[in-house]
Amino acid sequence: MTRRVIHIDESPIRFEKWRRNLPQWLQRFLPSGGGKAEDHHGKGMFGFTVFLLSESLIFLSFILTYIALRLTHSRNWLPPGVSGLEVSTFVIINTIVLLSSSFVIQPAENALKRGRLNKFRWLWLITIVMGTYFVIGQIIEWHNLNFGLSTGLVGSTFYVLTGFHGLHVMTGVILQIIMLVRSFIPGNYNKGHFGASATTLFWHFVDIVWAFLFPLLYLWRV
C-alpha cells in the first residue's frame, strides 16, 4: 500500500487566510491549502506570477526612464526632419487586434478546463493569428518610420520599448503554438493544464503592458 506523505506548510506567510478574502479570479495566483505538495498548479501559477512581477519591474524602469527623458528634453525631443509618430488607422487597428486577443484567449483556457478541446483549439488558434498579425504590423510600421534606432532619444527609446514588448509578444505566440500542438497529444491535459494557464496569464500581461505603452508613445505630444 502506498504511504501517504503529509506536507506541512512551513512558510511564514499564511497564503490560505489571504486567499479567502480575495476575488475568485485572483485566488488562482496563490497556492491553495497553504502550499500543499499535490497543488502543483497553484504553486506553479504563484511562481509564474512572481516571474511576471519581475518582468513588470523591467518594463516599469523603461517607462519611467522614457518619461524622465521626455520631460527633460521636451524642447529638442524630435531632431530636425523627424515628424514623430502618428496615430494612423493602421496603428489603431493593430492595437485593437492585440488588446482584443485577451478576450479570445481567456475563453479558450476556460474551454480547456471544461474539457472542450475543439473549442480550445479554435480560440487558441485565433489568438495565435491575432498575435502574429500584431508582430507583422509592428515590423511594417518600423519599416515605414522616418527615424531609426540611432535617431536621437526619440529613436532609441521608441525601438527599445516597442522592441522589448514585441519580443514578449513573439514569445507568447511561440508558447501558444506549443500549447496548441500539445493539445493533439492524447491525454496530454488530463492531469492538468498549467502550461495553458501560464501562457494565458503571460498574454494578459503582454496586453496590459501595451495598454500603457500605446498612449505613452503615440498620444503624448511634444
TrEMBL record:
SUPFAM superfamilies xrefs: Cytochrome c oxidase subunit III-like
Matches recorded under Pfam families: COX3
Membrane topology term: Multi-pass membrane protein
PROSITE patterns in alphabetical order: COX3
Chain segments annotated as transmembrane: 46-69, 89-108, 120-140, 160-181, 201-220
Keywords for the protein's UniProt record, in alphabetical order: Cell membrane, Membrane, Transmembrane, Transmembrane helix
Highest taxon listed in the record's lineage: Bacteria
Domain Heme-copper oxidase subunit III family profile: start-end pairs: 46-222
Localization annotation: Cell membrane
Chief location: membrane
InterPro entries: Cyt_c/ubiquinol_Oxase_su3, Cyt_c_oxidase-like_su3, Cyt_c_oxidase_su3-like_sf, Cyt_c_oxidase_su3_a-hlx
Matches recorded under PANTHER family: CYTOCHROME BO(3) UBIQUINOL OXIDASE SUBUNIT 3 (PTHR11403:SF2), CYTOCHROME C OXIDASE SUBUNIT III (PTHR11403)
Protein family (similarity comment): Belongs to the cytochrome c oxidase subunit 3 family.
Protein name, per record: Heme-copper oxidase subunit III
Taxonomic lineage from the root: Bacteria, Bacillati, Cyanobacteriota, Cyanophyceae, Nostocales
